[in-house]
Give the backbone structure.
Amino acid sequence: MMSVAENLIGIKPCAVEPFDKEWGVAVSAMTENPSPFPRVNKILANTQMTTNGEVVAERALLVTEAYQKHAGAPQVVKCAEGVSNMLRNVPIMIFPDELVVGNLGCAKKAAPVFPEFGLNWIIDEMESNLLNYSKNRTHDYFTYTEETQRGLTEIKDFWRGQCVEDVTLPLLTDEEIKGSHMGKGVFLAASYIYSGAGHLGINYEKLFTLGYGGIRKQIAEKMSVLDMSLPQDIKKKAFYEAELIVCDAATEYIMSFSRKARGMAGQEQDAVRKKELLQIADNCQWVSENPPRTFWEAIQLVHLANCMVLMESNGHSISYGRFDQYMFPFYRNDLKNGTATREFMQELIECFFIKIWDMNKVRDHVSINIFANGGIGGPCLTVGGVGKDGLDATNDVTFMAMDAHAHTRVPTPWMAVRLHNNTPWELRVKLANLIRLGTGEPKIFNDEVTIPSMLSYGRTIEECRDYQVVGCVEPDATGKEYGWHDAAYFNIAKVLELALNNGRCLECGSTCPRFEVCAGAGKQLGLQTGSLAGFKSFDEVLEAYDKQMKYWCDRMVSMLNAVDIAHQTIKPLPYLSLLIEGCIEKGLDATAGGAKYNFSGPQAVGIGTVGDGLATIKQLVFEEKKVSGEELLKAVKNNWEGYEPLYALVNSDKVRHYGNDDDYADELAKFGLDTYCKHIEKRPTAHGGVFQPGSYSVAVNVAFGGLQWASVEGRKAYEPISDCMGAVHTNAASHDVKGPSAICKSVTKLDHGRSSNGTLLNWKFAPTALSGETGRDNLISLLDTYVQRKGMHSQFTVVSRETLIDAQANPDKYRGLLVRVAGYSALFVELSKELQDDIIGRTELSFD
């Protein structure tokens, strides 16, 4: 077994827990005073364990004011002036006891508004009472004042025709609309119409080397060599002017916190807190221009720099890179110089985690019902893995970050732990014990498949080894990539439905209560590729699936490129472009291809559903001939009513199912995913890169199921389709029945590396299965096998079915219960009932 790397300076109780510290099994977040630090417990006691908040208008009004003042400026300059006016004028708040300061220009859990993407939806929800608590929004609900509603309404007309939503819609064809979230939901591509793309991490090496003062000099040097007789340099000049505007504003924003802290120190009576405030003031003053010198300065700069990314773009999944790698030099130097103790740096990390959880954003009620419990959405923090040299890079900060989650137990940041064949035993033990805690954190990523997968898309080997995870799932070259990860969700189960019914939906037509835009069973949606009632061979089924797949992938790619073009036209990101490699060098905004790498990553959903559907057809119709294709299609059209014996059969282990280490079904699931991948991979994006496929659902499998009639593998109408890379579990039965080893083998028969935008496998274990040293070591063994078999990404829910059912019935008893949804953990009682039911229905595993 590998021992810990020499980067591990030493393990000390309290600040860095012993590597084999156990917190219990399935304890989740329901513990008082989880931290050894009284300050952290005090802040936690005053922290809302909820994503409910208040909508505030200040940001929207300040940006509008700047746009009106600079109406004739180039768009990138206009955007920069909007960011500058916002950063210079939003309220500056420092809260009691905190050591890391910064927010989104509003109070804890409050959410700013981003009219650049569209105002209609939020004003409509205010007018319809859909933003407040209601049957349509039982969580993630928001209050707002009459003044806020009036202010947003007054600027609504100004943004008409100047927001991403208004520019996107005229670019779309009727077929794209019909297949999208606005029609039948073959694919959902709404996220980046109503908010920034996000899903990235800034270049921490650059920020820590240059600081904002050094970046300003870099911009000035580029401007000094422009040749204004060249048309491309005229465009670059506008970009560089925008960069200077936002760089100066960033410095001023950080200085505002310095002034605020110094002013508060002057009024503070407690000597200890006074000293802390003065140090916060000094920290902010220094990092407003200069590279950080200490651990405290560095973590403060990380937080403020990311706050400004969020304030500019409203993007999901603004992630925190390889935290243990970029923070370790400061940790080592502070210990060497006596600047800070190990205990104090642990306390800083925990304060930093809570600050991330305090931030919030507002989404429409439909998105909330689909995703649930988002907060700011996807602030992933990565630890572990190999270094740029390919050797294990575990260090003290790796363990400290994991301890920080155990000590705070807040849903954000989402944490990813990178594993590889030589991961130290101590880290694997720490990881297993943290998983067993039952908060759903952390997720694990496998360097052995992720690095080669990233390498196949043109990144350097050093960049691939240094990858971070952004958001729920996606590998990313930190600070070098504008990846448009998570660009859309694509229902491959719907494609199979169309392939079996000649391009028509199977729903019951005009009597269907769930479809607002229901074409009816007689209306054509996709290509006419034949029907299961008429197919003479299984090969014809596969051919129809392939043709329908290409048709709808073409529609989705076209729509995503249209949204991409709208972003470039309407919402350049000059502040983000300061901190993404390539933008200043090229003189080009991140949205327009300025980054070194420029991908778009839509995800396949319903892999298990397709695999089992194809297996059912192949086995029962074409091989065993137990039912005709026409009869199977009729059973599905009738939602299995009157076909109960057939329904029981397809949900039984007499039919070959994906997830049981059965090559028959597993190869068909692989075909279903590979067909999607081949019609997505390497196609050009509108911002200068290529598409890369992913295969995960987050919670969209529930939404897709709610838009889809019954299906041949044994779903009834509106049940969720299979989640991520997992097996099918219908209301009748789970289709994976042979335990975790069989699931591991089935899932790893699929080519995870081909899904280069990320894959995801959810596991759900009964707490008794992971109890004791035996349970811990069984979990470690399963993780090792998954790594060796080149599974890319896994995550775990450790809670009993009985607990979840009781929590659903008695939510007040379980306010702190965290569960793994998919890519993220969330408070179970704040999820929609449909999503709760899906989590309850996941197969509960044991090692028996």
